[in-house]
Amino acid sequence: MAAVRFCRTAGLVVSAVCSLITSGSTGSAWAQPGPSAPVVPAFSLKVSPTRLVITPSQAGDPQRFQVANTGRAGVDVAVTATSLEQHPDGSLSYPPAAPYSAAHWVGMAPRHFHLAPGAARTVTVRLTIPAQPEPGEHAVALLSLVPAEQQQGHVRLNRGVAVPLLVTVPGAVSDTVTLAGLHTQGFSPGGPITLTAVVKDSGTVHHDFFAPDHNLLADAEGHAIAFPDFTVLRGSTRAVTTQWADPPPACICHITVAITRKGLPPHALQATVVRFPVYPVGGLIAALATLYLMWRFMASRFTLQRRPPRRPA
What we know:
Immunoglobulin-like; five-stranded mixed β-sheet; about 20% helix
């Protein structure tokens, strides 16, 4: 009899928990809003191509890029050249001067033009390389700006879009990249494992890590984990992050990232993650402890009911 009551009680507990989980997931599904129609902004400029890479044999040839107005308002565009720097997250800034800058080598035409909504204009770029430039690759940002005086309001900002131009001058070059760090959590209780690699360009040209043949990969216990595509400019350092989406539930996981180098052994770094499912195991222990206490309680009640009544003295 006590076993029957215990099973019924446990069944009610499990049913109640399942009902709560089902109602919670249904409620979250009803709370999701529907897709909204895309809104065309008043200001929107696009450039094509988004990057120009010039080899030594192409340095004397004219290069071209296109500026398109994909917004709702007409704009007056001013095209200019400036230095550029790359930050660890991959973003670019445009200081007046920077190492390996080619800002003073660039001539463009036209430099000023008007774009009606939906219109596009092609800009021609010509390079004048100095007689004795520093060997290797030089960079410049080709900025298409809408000056601040065309805007209304108290806060006015120059708005625009940039095309990085990378030009390699004749001479010897070095395509060398190394791993400056490999970071991950030392302990993982569950879920995906986040991995961050720090890559430094110590050569004289940029380096592209693009799939499918040249992307950066991590080897995690025989599983290949791809990093997203990225570029490291000359003299820059990049920090790129990926995730191991389906690691085993429990392991001492060794993760290795290696960069192949022509004529040299690969440069590799390794990180170790201890993985143990704390939360599932803790939940299972709590559930077993609850069921054990319920069984003890029901068993004690059954024992009291079966005990014969005491006879009066």
